[in-house]
Amino acid sequence: MSKEYKNPPVVEAWIDFRFEYGEEAPIWNEKIAVDFVKSFEQFKQEEHRARVKKEIKLSKQGLVISEADPVLERLKTFNKTKDRCLQIEQNLLVYNMLRKKESGWPGFSVLLSEALPFCRLFISKFHPIKLRTVLHYRDHVLIPFTNNEIEPSDYFKIYPEVPNDFGSMRDYSLSLVLPDICNNGVALLSTKTARVPIEKSQLKFVFIIDWDVRSEISFESDDLGACEAWLKHAHEGINKAFNECLTDRCRSLFE
Fold this sequence. Notes:
The chain has a domain of 129 residues. The relative contact order is 0.18. Helix content is 21%, strand content 39%.
C-alpha cells in the first residue's frame, strides 16, 4: 500500500465513482455501454452481466412465467495484460488496478491519474449532476508457518480474542466501521485469515485486509478537483491507519 515498503502487500486497489442524476437518468443499454468502452483502445475484452426480469402469474392452467429481454446491469472489461479493469453501470464507474506478480506496485498516484480521465469522459457522455466516490485497497499478508499455529498479535494490533474456555481460534473474520480515518468519509476495515497452498504441499497463512473509504458528501460533477482532493486525503488516512495497525514483525515482511 505504501511506497516506503520495498514489497508492499497490496494486490489490488480500485476507485468507485457513483453518479447521481437529475429528474431523468440517461438511456442505458448494451449498445451504449459497449460503444463507450470501445472508445478506449486499451480495453477490448468484455464481460457482460445482465439482469432478467420475470413475471409470475397464477392462471387456471397453473403458474405462468413470462420473461422479458435481458437488461444490461454491468459491463466489465480488461486490458491485454489483465492488470487494469474498467467496469460501468448506468450510475457507476469502477477503475481497478491489479498487481502482477512479475512487477511492483505502481502506487496510488498512478491509480488516481488513470481513473480520473475515465470519470471525466463518463460525465461528459451521460451528464450526471453529482457523484460520490469510494477508495478500496486489498492486501494479502503471507506468512510461512510449520506448526499450523499463528499468533495474530505478533503481526497486527487489531485482532479478535476469545475466552480461554473456548480453546484455540483457528481462523477469524472481523469488520470495523471507522468514522475518523478521514474527513467527510467513513472507512470499513475488514480482515480475515486463510491458508493458501504453495510448492511441495506446504501452506502459507494469509491475512486478507480490505480497506473501503466512502465519501459522505456529494461532489459536483463539473468540479472533479474536489473529488480528487478528497481521494488523496482518503488515501493518506488509509495509509496512516494501515501502518499503525501493524507490528514491527509484520512490517519486516515487506522489506
